[in-house]
Amino acid sequence: MFEHLTVLRDCKAITIPYGETITLKEGDEVVITQALGGSYTLNYHGQLLRVGNEDSDALGKPALIATSKENTADHEVNFVQLYEQLKSCYDPEIPINIVELGLIYDVNCYQLIDGRNLVRITMTLTATGCAMGTVIADEIKRKCLALANVDKVEVAIVFDPPWSYEMVSDAAKLQLGLL
Prior knowledge:
Layout: E1 3-6, E2 11-16, E3 21-24, E4 29-36, E5 39-44, E6 47-52, H1 79-86, E7 104-111, E8 117-123, H2 133-145, E9 152-157, H3 170-176
Parallel strand pairs: 8-9
Antiparallel strand pairs: 1-4, 2-3, 2-6, 4-5, 5-6, 7-8
C-alpha cells in the first residue's frame, strides 16, 4: 500500500526511529507506506514519520480505531480484549503487531485499594537504542485505557531477556518471509 497524498492541515508527526515530534504542514506531499493499528507510517522526503489515529483526518483518512469505554458491574478486566488491544499496536517499521513480534513479556492486572484496576505490562523492544519505545508505550496505555474496567496502565520496557528473532511467532515469521 503506497498512496501519495497531500496533507490537508498541519498535524503532529513522530520521526522514525528517533521518536522526535515534528509538524507536517498543510500542503506537504507524503506517501503512506503502512496503515496499521490506528496509525499511519509516512515517507516524507525520505524520512519515515508516524501519524496517529487522532490526526488521520489531516491525511483525508478516517480514524482507524474507534473506542468507547463502559465499565461493567463486575469491574473485571477482560484479558481477551486486552490482548486484542495489544495486537492493534505495531512497530512503525515492521508490519507485525507487538504481540506477534514477541515484544510483550508479561501482562498482569491488580486491583488497587480504591477498587480501580491497574494493568501492568512488561515488554521489550527489537533494539535497545530504539527511540520509539516511549511512543509505543504511550500507544499501549491509550488503547488499554479505552477498555472497560481498565483504570490505570503501567508499561515497563526491559531488555532482559534481550529480544531475538526466536521470540517472533511462527505466523509472523511466515509473514516476514523467515520460514
